[in-house]
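As promised in the previous annual report, we have extended the structural survey to additional targets. Below is the entry for Transposase.
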Amino acid sequence: MNLTKTVVLKLKETDDSIQETMERYTEGMNFASKVVYENGEPLSANRLQKLTYKHLRENLDLPSQMSCNVARQVSGTYKALQKQVEKENSEWQKIEFSPTNIKFSYGRDYKINKEKLSITTLDGRKKYEITNYEYAEQFFSGEWKYLASELVKHKDGEYYFHLTCEKEVEEKPIEKSSNFMGIDVGINFLAVGTTTDKNQTFLGKGVAKDLRKTYKKMRQRLQSKGTFSAYKRLKALSEKEKRLMKQLNHKVSKEIVKFAKEEGVDVIGMEDLTDIRDGTRVRKKDRYNHESWAFRQLQKFIEYKAVEKGIRVEYIDPENTSKTCSRCGHISRNNREGLNFVCEECGYELHADLNGARNIEHKVRDFRHDLESQGSCQPPDVDGVETTSATASCGAEPQASS
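The corresponding structure token record, generated without further manual editing, is:
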């Protein structure tokens, strides 16, 4: 199983070559974007490269590998847009890129060690010192394989290298797994976990709701003023709220994976909540908490921390997990009332989130038996991403919440 991580490293000193190269690279992406937009549908990276390579090389003087990276990056962006168009969450539109990042391929246009980064610029190959720190030392131990990475200009105006790397980690084959764990992520409790042996944990009770409520009131007060200084303060508050939520998700994910390791869990099951916001109706007063719920970020944190510990992660279909009685299997919307679950068929009573977590554990355990009976233990893809690998981002600046 491959574990993939992205570590953010700050460049100590920069020069004009970086910004000039970034601007030229962005000009190339906008040219490629125009080609795709006028085509009316996404183009493969290879097809787009054939249509744009000559212009990027001869008219914009972009290096060869950088010209190839432009096609890959733009093609991927439009494929993501097309998925949103198909879900009727967006419309076909021309994408404009801003000069904030450049994609590099390891060995071809970048090399790195724990002290220096060597990248291709318009002025040729250049070396820049990077700020290293204790946590990042592990990524230069020789265990990690470096992948395509990005040089990014952050909001503070500084340049950071987002180094993406991967390594093999051992995991127990799913057909030999016997102890499973279901995790229900939510708003009242950020995570509720239960194992095959019915050992359970409740984490993050009310913390996220209290945080969101506090910042919502602060925003409402500033919005009522309508001044420029209030607007600047609103932006600062938004970034601080994201940082605090990210820290909370890191804490909860660390605790739940620690619990799983102590319980000898082999496989963790979670719901595939893709498009959950589109298909869920909520009361007006709860709409903000629902829209700002950073569930995907928490799931990804749990995923990569679990993989580091050799615990497999699988995503299951979330259909009826909150409506099904985990004892008798009866399905009814009337079974659940807030945080209380009372089965109208057998009268079984349980905390609603714990009932959901038990149903998730049942589903992932059944998935293992289904694979074994079919003579295959290869898990299906979830939204096009293999669930046996994990991705994480760690470094100086928080990423956007899900």
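The chain has two domains: 2-168, 174-394. Residues 228-262 form the longest helix (35 residues). These points will be discussed at the next consortium meeting with the crystallography subgroup.
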